[in-house]
Every structure is written in C-alpha cells, then in structure tokens.
Design a protein that fits this description.
The chain is an all-alpha fold. The protein has a domain of about 60 residues. It is built from one helix and two strands. It has a two-stranded antiparallel sheet. It starts with about 160 loop residues before the first strand and ends with a helix. The relative contact order is 0.02.
C-alpha cells in the first residue's frame, strides 16, 4: 500500500482530508489490525471528536459489532453522560430494541442512585411501562417498590394471588375505619382505667395515712393509761 495520507488545513471551512464517493461506496474507509479503524480528536468543547450526519432520513452514526457493543460511550466527567441522546423534534431521545433480551438496561454501582431514572419536567409521566401480555412494570427487591406520594390504581390489586377490586378495597377501607374506631374506644377505656387506678392509689394512700394516725392515737392513749395505772398503784 502507499504511504498514509497527511492532510493539513489552516482554514476553518476546509477539511484537512476529504473523502468523497459519487457512487454507492464509502466516502472514507478506515481499517486497522490492532487499533481503532478511525480515530477522531478535537480540542474544542463545542464539537465532537467524531461526528456523523445524514441528510436523507438515515442514521447519522451507525455502530456494528459481531462480538461486543455496537456503540460504546465512555466519560470521566461528573456532570456528563457516557452516552447521551437528544431529539429536538417529536421523536425519542434514546431508543433501544432487542429481539431476545432487554431493549435498554441501566446498571448503577451507587446506593444513592438508580440503575434507570426517568424525570419529566413537563407535567407528564417520568417512567412509563407497557406490555401486550406481561407486566408493564416489574420490580424486585426489598422492598420491590417504593412510592413517595399518592398512588392511583385503575384496575385490581393482586395480593398473594388474591385480586382486590374496588369493592374489596372499599370493604377493607370500611373494616379499617371500624378497627380505628374500636382502637379509639379501647384507648378511651384504657384512659378511664388509668384514671380509676390513680384514684384508687390516692385512696389507698389516704387510708394508710389514716391508719398511721389511728395507731399514733392509740399509742398515746396506751401511754396515758399506763401512767394512770402507775399513779393508782403508788
């Protein structure tokens, strides 16, 4: 093969190297036996190291691999993502599809962050799951689900194989209300018993004080009698 091409341009509107194919072949082709087939480097934060653009309805960038990731993105930034997708139209920002495995998988090694997080600042749903025959959203863990706020269920709630529809949930709500009323009544009874117990304790203390007074009075009378008997004997 010939020596590698070396292109240099000082004009911001002229590429260092340009490849063009007016037929159906590649405009630029890169191949390496031991390193990257094509390597792009930029020193500005406003542009990418490698950019792909398509003006006829196809993908801007395509990655294909027979044994590894089709596209791999990596970043050491604390603020930016390894892979980011944006759409300024009405389409998806990121789309994943698989015939036999997960369409999209997210993994996090931090206890403070989720493997997959969805946010919506436009008033809509942050995470949405739908399935034609299986679960729309499935969670497994301890707990399997955590909700910080109100929960709306439009269908039945299945608990350990027992379906709970609106009627059953309504009945449970009435039972809970009845139990709360019973608990309130029992608490009132306990309060009444505690008040009675306190009153009995006061009564017992009064009786003890009275007994002590009576004993002291009897002791005094016994002493007086002893003195009188002694005087009579003298």
């Amino acid at each position: 093969m010939s020596d590698p091409y070396d292109g240099l341009s000082a004009d911001p509107n002229v590429s260092g190297i340009t490849g063009e194919n007016t037929a159906a072949g590649n405009g630029v082709f890169g191949s390496s036996q031991g390193n990257d087939g094509v390597l792009g480097i930029t020193f500005t934060s406003a542009h990418a190291g490698v950019a792909g653009k398509n003006e006829h309805g196809g993908p801007g960038v395509v990655g294909i691999s027979t044994l590894s990731n089709g596209v791999l993105g990596s970043s050491t930034s604390d603020e930016q993502a390894g892979v980011a997708g944006t759409n300024t139209g009405k389409g998806r920002g990121v789309y994943g599809e698989s015939k036999t495995y997960e369409g999209v998988r997210g993994v996090s090694h931090s206890r403070d962050h989720g493997g997959v997080v969805g946010t919506n600042d436009g008033g809509g749903t942050a995470v949405f799951g739908t399935s034609t025959s299986g679960a729309g959203v499935s969670g497994k863990g301890n707990p399997a689900g955590f909700f910080d706020g109100n929960v709306v269920i439009t269908g039945d709630l299945n608990v350990h194989g027992v379906p709970l529809g609106p009627q059953q949930i309504g009945d449970l709500g009435q039972q809970v209300t009845s139990l709360r009323q019973q608990v309130t009544s029992l608490q009132q009874q306990v309060t009444g018993l505690q008040q009675r117990l306190t009153a009995l304790e006061h009564l017992v203390n009064d009786v003890r004080l009275q007994e002590i007074g009576d004993v002291q009075t009897l002791r005094g009378e016994v002493v007086n009698l002893s003195v009188r008997i002694a005087n009579l004997g003298g």
